[in-house]
Amino acid sequence: EKNRRIVLLVFSSLMFMCIFLPIVLIAYNLSKNLTYKNTVLIIASLFFYAWGEPIWVVLLIFSAFVDYINGRIIDKYYARAGATIALVSSLVINLGLLAMFKYSGFFIENINSFLHTSIPNPNFKLPIGISFYTFQTLSYTIDMYRGKTRVQKSFLGFLAYVSMFPQLVAGPIVRYSDVAAQIEERHTTPQDMSEGITRFCIGLTKKGVVANVA
């Protein structure tokens, strides 16, 4: 049942194209207020993720919150010890969570084998897209530490960056500096919409005609 639900919201599915995407586009364009638009994108993205991972959506929000706070600390204590501590915190928490979900079973099985113990294997199911959003938030704190991007002071804005559904579960990893200006201010013209629809249709054709057949 879980796998079937995940399939329903892939970009080439009828559920995505005929229901999810039209509703999101209509809701998104009901107001020109940027806070409203970001809120719509966050709600849509969390719904998109929760459709396949209803439990681990909390982990996604937690990961975003951790690096939002670490980013604020790095900005406040830039080039001082506090910034280094915040960066280490980001690395330890994010990589620790990733290692726990991906490798805990492997390590426990080997410990039990070598030490003849019987430590229970938690058998964590790997959350969808955890590698993508983990390294995406890490790229933000690392760039902050290196002085290559400016701090995002709004958690809403940062969560919009982390959770954006077009790249949330399959990448690519997007650096914050590449989209920072669009999160703070963006204007969409009819030509932009036309180009976006054209790109989507080309990608959908490649997916349906080439990738699925192959």
Question: Any overview of this molecule?
Answer:
The protein is an all-alpha fold and 214 residues long. It has ten helices and no strands. It has helices at residues 2-8, 14-28, 34-52, 57-76, 81-115, 130-145, 155-163, 165-168, 176-184, 190-211. Helix 3 crosses helix 7 (155-163) and helix 7 (155-163) crosses helix 9 (176-184). The longest helix is centred in the middle third of the chain and has 35 residues, at 81-115. It is globular.
Radius of gyration: 20 Å
Report the count of strand segments: 0
Q: What's the helix-strand series?
A: HHHHHHHHHH
Q: CA-to-CA gap between the ends?
A: 26 Å
Shape: globular
Strand content is under 5%
Largest sheet: none
What share of the residues lie within helices? over 70%
Average pLDDT, all residues: 86
Instruction: Determine the structural class based on helices, strands and strand pairing.
Output: mainly alpha
Question: Poorly predicted ranges (pLDDT <50, ≥5 residues)?
Answer: 1-8
Helix segment count? 10
Q: What is the element layout, followed by pairings?
A:
Layout: H1 2-8, H2 14-28, H3 34-52, H4 57-76, H5 81-115, H6 130-145, H7 155-163, H8 165-168, H9 176-184, H10 190-211
Helix pairs in contact: 2-3, 3-7, 4-5, 4-6, 4-7, 5-6, 7-9
